[in-house]
Specification:
The complex is a heterodimer of chains A (599) and B (351). Chain A has 599 residues and is α+β, with helices and mostly antiparallel strands. Helices cover 30% and strands 22% of the residues of chain A. In chain A, strands 16, 17, 18, 19, 22, 23, 24 and 25 form an 8-stranded mixed sheet that branches. The longest helix of chain B has 37 residues, at 126-162. Classes of the chains: A alpha+beta (599), B mainly alpha (351).
């Protein structure tokens, strides 16, 4: 009985050897030589030509919940889905511009209402089934169906009406919108085209949400991305294998991807990820904190860490501006009188030492920000936005104008008090799992102390923090961060619009609570349907200026995107957009791979 | 060495250590919450007596650190600008023993700052933080142990002396408390409390919580001693002469408990200091920026701090002499033959 596993293991080794030999003969490089002659329209990528073969190991913050893009809400699932699925038009993470993907070309009608997309010929899902316009139609039908509750649905409602999708022929699809859409073809990024042959029946039976679980057999799921499912070991790892039907090639005509296997290890803790990377268990690491980055950069043996520059994450402080009516406690109502005072918020902003935050929290690997658009966003930053330096004098003057005054305590410390003589004291919530934001709050606490405000930092578990901010609304102030998924303004639409769920200081309003929020709503809605980039940028810039004037969010700092890779990984170019390191996974290769495809 | 000498020596050691912590304002050069944002994670400055030209100085001095260009936390000594230490110098305001306003510090420099134990992530002086942090942690230990012993003493005496159903009930409750996983209980208690507590409230909460959880063991010990003492001949004799319960407890029984209580105190105080540190380490204790030993150690939860800045461990080392002191005292106290004392007294009463 004891020997049984050993025998199995030996059989497995033999089997693998056999597989290895057979792989030599039907290697992609050979296979591809034939495919290249067929009339498939491959997308040829520029860049360094790599080697075939090998496995790349990366760590994932935890187990993905699903492989199904219709129900995926967590970041881990989306990261995995990103390498298993493909979209019609894709945003290049390096240039932040759109480029053809499953659609080889597209046309937008002069009135901006009709998009005509032409698909590549000969596309196949990872299970070998052909893909055509019917799959596109089916996918959008699913996304727009109210009963599936797909998170993508909101994106596809333009001007209050869902997008209408029509098939012209097997290769051509037309999208009809009720209103012009400012971001244009960027809309299609991240909208995975689903396999109709696998999903049509479950969809009609209303069981779509049950499809795509990780433990299902590999042949029950298919995508158009560079990798497909091979093996899932609960609690440990997810192994993906090369999709032999992928539709991209390198500049010499080799069919991508280069890697045979992509392995996601489930490592829940950031420090543990660093240890695994340092010991060589994983090949790539991303979303590094500045402190771990400097630990890794001190002794780079066999690996290199890279600072890709400022990303799209913005961290900010905000006060509770919700109109709670009778529900609010008397204490909160009294505090909200201060919070609603624009000059109070401006004073807090003037007192915040953003440079210290960048230096102490991000070790200089970040940027101070005064608006929602970070320096990592190359196109949309408003150049007119003021960047006032820290000034306690200005802060004091603003507070004085707003009717605050100071008293001196017995120890010589000054205390700020409001016009009613009450001392200004409030608490700042932070997520207990995010050391960076806790540090930011500690710096702010000290900054505000110098104005005579007594702030207390309260670390909370993230879920209960979110519950307080968005549901019960029992809090004074909070330090939070949001990472835009795209450089386009529309990716932050829920922050901008007063009806948005992440309009954090006063979410999901039925009517804009203040005139300036109403003005921002107008500007953002106008830019959504504006036709040219310049028009949009002007409107968006104005919205940024209003936000900077009224300071509902007091912007603090934006961290750089820090990542690392073993020196043996080729084509490693971390980007500032998600997925930071796996965006070009089809081009990643191992320099000690089996065979040089370029020869 | 005699028993008495040993006890006195350990008490002296502890007295000196506690004196330093009580007068933290004097021994610490700076205000523990003041941030020096230009100097995060500064390594400890070494005291020098010999300068670069081999001249001997009577007054110790330090070389300040300069940031190595292009780095965030790599510093090098700047030998061109030595800073000499001044003793008994006026500096940051503080309150001696919590109420006497003072400005005098044991040492400091004229304008620039010196960091003998380095700085933390915000450039706060580690030495000052350790000294002031000791005030919180030790006071929590002392108060917590005192409260625990008081509760344990009362309950133990009642259970042991009166016996019967009160003994049964109290001891079953004590066993229940002994069986509780106390750390999780603390988590649960803390979770029910209001979101924002100011440092003082948080401190008393911790003390109350650790005291409320730990009374069961001393109560059982006290009960055992009371139980055996009340059956002794001299107690019976006293009762025979018409002594009241209160008199018996006060005059004859509870004095027997004193040595056990003292030993328990010496064991419990360091335990409770550790309990406070555990709570603060896990973020349930006194909130930042107020220092406590547990708070200081919680920096070490981060891998990067663990491998990069060795001086952040110093707050763990500083507990060692305190714990040694208390445990030494405990063992010296334990050598006092409590049982023998009773024996001798009862023999004496026979004679």
């Amino acid at each position: 009985m004891r020997n049984y596993p050993a025998i199995v293991a030996r059989c497995r080794i033999l089997f693998r050897l056999f597989l290895g030999f057979s792989a030599l003969f039907c290697h992609p490089a050979f296979a591809h030589a034939q495919q290249n002659n067929s009339n498939e329209e491959l997308l040829t990528l520029p860049g360094e030509v790599g080697h075939f073969g090998g496995r790349l190991v990366v760590s994932l913050r935890g187990e993905p919940k699903t492989l199904n893009p219709i129900i995926a809400a967590d970041a881990r699932s989306r990261e995995v889905i990103g390498v298993m699925q493909a979209d019609l038009i894709h945003i290049n993470r390096a240039t932040q511009l759109t480029e053809p993907a499953l659609a080889k070309s597209w046309k937008i009608s002069p009135d901006g209402l009709t998009y005509t997309l032409v698909l590549r010929k000969g596309l196949k899902f990872s299970d070998g089934q052909p893909m055509d316009a019917d799959d596109v139609l089916f996918s959008f039908h699913v996304y727009l169906d109210e009963n599936t509750h797909a998170p993508q649905r909101d994106l596809l409602i333009v001007g209050g009406k869902p997008i209408v999708v029509r098939k012209v022929d097997a290769q051509t699809v037309v999208f009809q919108m009720a209103k012009p859409y400012g971001a244009g073809e960027r809309l299609f990024d991240g909208l995975a085209i689903l396999p109709r042959h696998l999903l049509e029946q479950p969809f009609q039976e209303g069981k779509l949400a049950q499809i795509g679980s990780l433990s299902a057999a590999a042949n029950q799921w298919a995508g158009l991305g560079p990798f497909r499912l091979r093996e899932y070991v609960a609690g440990q790892r997810l192994v993906l294998e090369r999709n032999p039907y992928y539709w991209k090639s390198d500049s010499t005509g080799n069919l991508l991807p280069y890697l045979d296997e992509l392995v996601f290890l489930f490592v829940p803790n950031a420090d543990a990820q660093v240890l695994k990377f340092q010991s060589g268990e994983t090949d790539l690491i991303s979303q590094l904190g500045a402190e771990n980055f400097s630990v890794l950069s001190r002794r780079q043996d066999g690996y290199t860490v890279t600072d890709a520059g400022p990303g799209l994450e913005y961290n900010f402080l905000f006060f509770n501006l919700n109109d709670l009516g009778e529900k609010a406690s008397a204490d909160l109502q009294r505090k909200q009188k201060w919070f609603r005072e624009v000059k109070f918020r401006q004073a807090v902003s003037a007192a915040a030492d953003r440079d210290a935050i960048v230096r102490l929290v991000y070790q200089g690997r970040g940027a101070a920000i005064w608006g929602l658009v970070t320096p990592g966003n190359k196109r949309w930053g408003d150049t007119n936005l003021p960047h006032p330096a820290r000034s306690l004098d200005r802060a004091r003057a603003l507070l004085k104008e707003a009717g605050f005054s100071w008293t001196t305590g017995p120890n010589g410390e000054s205390t700020l008090q409001d016009s009613g003589g009450k001392p200004v004291e409030f608490s700042i919530l932070t997520s207990s799992s995010n050391a960076d934001r806790a540090k930011m709050a500690a710096i702010l606490q000290d900054d505000l102390q110098q104005l005579g405000m007594r702030a207390q930092v309260v670390p909370l578990e993230f879920r209960s923090l979110l519950d307080r901010v968005t549901q019960t609304k029992e809090y004074d102030a909070c330090v939070m961060g949001i990472a835009s998924y795209d450089a386009d303004p529309n990716s932050d639409i829920n922050v901008w619009l007063s009806s948005g769920g992440t309009h954090l200081w006063n979410p999901s309003q039925t009517h804009p609570a203040t005139p300036w929020e109403a003005e921002i709503d107008h500007l953002i809605e106008d830019q959504m349907s504006a036709r040219t980039f310049d028009q949009r940028k002007k409107l968006y810039g104005r919205a940024q200026e209003i936000l900077a004037e009224y300071q509902p969010l007091i912007f603090l700092a934006s961290p750089d995107i820090l990542a690392g890779a073993k020196n043996s990984v080729g084509n490693f170019h971390p980007a500032v957009l998600e997925p930071y390191v796996l965006w070009n996974v089809e081009q990643l290769y191992l320099k000690n791979g089996r065979e040089n495809a370029a020869q | 060495m005699s028993r008495r000498r040993k006890t006195a020596n350990w008490l002296l050691v502890l007295g000196v250590l506690h004196g330093i912590v009580i007068c933290a304002g004097f021994f610490a050069p700076y205000n523990p919450v003041e941030q020096d944002r230009k100097n995060p994670y500064l390594p400890p400055m070494r005291l020098h007596f010999m300068d670069s030209r081999k001249h001997l100085h009577l007054r110790p001095f330090v070389y300040p650190f300069q940031l190595r260009p292009g780095t965030f936390d790599q510093y090098m000594e700047d030998a061109a600008h030595p800073r000499s230490l001044k003793f008994l110098i006026a500096g940051d305001r503080y309150r001696m023993l919590g109420f006497l306003p003072a400005r005098l510090h044991l040492f400091g420099t004229d304008n620039e700052r010196i960091y003998l134990l380095g700085t933390d992530a915000f450039g706060r002086d580690q030495l000052s933080r350790i000294l002031f942090g000791g005030q919180i942690s030790l006071l929590a230990g002392l108060l917590g142990a005192g409260l625990t012993l008081l509760i344990g003493w009362c309950i133990g005496a009642v259970a042991g002396y009166f016996g019967g159903w009160s003994d049964d009930v109290l001891m079953r409750v004590a066993e229940l408390f002994l069986a509780l996983p106390w750390l999780y209980l603390l988590f649960a208690i803390r979770a029910f409390l209001p979101l924002t507590v100011n440092p003082l409230q948080a401190f008393f909460l911790i003390v109350a919580v650790i005291a409320a959880v730990g009374w069961a063991r001393p109560a059982r010990l006290v009960r055992g001693i009371v139980l055996s003492a009340k059956e002794r001949d001299f107690v019976r004799a006293a009762r025979g002469f018409g002594a009241s319960n209160l008199y018996l407890l006060r005059r004859h029984i509870l004095p027997e408990v004193s040595s056990v209580l003292l030993t328990q105190a010496a064991i419990l105080i360091p335990q409770y200091v550790l309990a406070e540190m555990t709570l603060s380490f896990l973020g349930l204790g006194v909130p930042e920026p107020v220092p406590s030993w547990g708070n200081l150690l919680s920096n070490l939860q981060q891998y990067s701090v663990l491998v990069s800045y060795w001086w952040m461990y110093l707050s763990a080392l500083v507990m060692v002499p305190f714990f040694l002191g208390y445990l030494g005292l405990a063992s010296a106290l334990q050598e006092r033959p409590a049982a023998y004392k009773i024996e001798r007294r009862s023999l004496g009463s026979l004679a």
